[in-house]
Amino acid sequence: MSLDDFEEALADKPSDERWELIGGRVVRMMVGARWEHARIVNNLSRHVGNALDAAGSSCQVFTETFYLKSRPLEAAMLPDVMVVCGSLEPGATSASDPAVLVEVMSVGSEARDRYEKWHVYRQLPSLRHYVLVTRDRPLVEVFDRAGEVWTNRELEGLDAALDLPAIGVSLPLRDIYARVFG
């Protein structure tokens, strides 16, 4: 399905349903999540947002209801956490140029986050970091772009730190998983 057709179809969906367009394929998303998922998303949003504000950054943090849209990639997705740098148009409901995308993975969402979404996300020219956060244990996988080359690293344990140099933020996993583990 094209992004235009998706947006038209979305207008007819009930407000309590969430839908994504992943590379031209329409996917109904889960509504509601385990408390651990919500806590991790909240922790990430709060700590990253506070760090960006303290640094006087132009970057902003958005969560789960703010769309990432790309017409060339036929995509309209709702990342768990998205960092966008620069200004947005007044009234915008989406962005097309994220610097950082984060998905908090459950058993049910891991394949989609790790493969389907990653296939689309890595084609976004602005994206510098894609972060996969495991919900059920302190484990984070990070894909970093340097030029056109992607590398990945794995962080495990509450004493590890998530460094996101593209936005100048470093965050201990202890903060990401606060009140979930430890």
From TrEMBL:
Superkingdom of this entry's organism?
A: Bacteria
Keywords assigned by UniProt? Endonuclease, Hydrolase, Nuclease
- InterPro entries hit by this protein: Nuclease_put_TT1808 (IPR012296), Restrct_endonuc-II-like (IPR011335), Uma2 (IPR008538)
**Quick check: keyword Nucleotide-binding in the entry?**
no
Q: Which positions fall inside the Putative restriction endonuclease domain?
A: 4-172
Pfam families to which the protein is assigned, alphabetical: Uma2
What Gene Ontology terms describe what this protein does at the molecular function level?
A: endonuclease activity
Q: Identify the PANTHER family for this entry.
A: GLR1098 PROTEIN, RESTRICTION ENDONUCLEASE DOMAIN-CONTAINING PROTEIN-RELATED
Output this protein's name.
Answer: Uma2 family endonuclease
